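#lab-general

N.A. 3:47 PM
ok so I finally got the sequence cleaned up, no stray characters, all 138 residues accounted for. can someone with queue access submit it? mine expired

B.Y. 3:52 PM
send it over

N.A. 3:53 PM
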Amino acid sequence: MSKYNELLLSQIQLANELSSILDDEKSALESHKIEMLVELSTQKATLLENFNHLENERENIIDSFNAADPETKQLQSELVSLIEQCVKQNHINATAIGLSQNRVRNQLGLLLGEDRLISLYSAKGKVVSQALTHRHGC
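B.Y. 4:20 PM
back already:
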């Protein structure tokens, strides 16, 4: 097996590990396990550093490999597919984090009695922003 293909296999292994970590991250988000999220974030950063290191190595030897080799083509296709899957998983997790932050921000606003703008629909179906005030007596 060529050095290039060995690097591809190593990257595929890292991409599989990243996919697993992203699955764990999604579970931690769903169950609100903050400590686990911090640990997974550290693991993701380390994996991405290792992945980038391998990518730099692979780019340095790119001229010396045979791109027409069926094994190389299959490994490259597998790696691209895994990377696309990881990007989708990461986007889903990022969206979940954003939604969670908005929910917490809204709940804090309600508790603190802050004025907020909300969007409503008019009779004509257009979005209209309106101030919403909450005052809680203490």
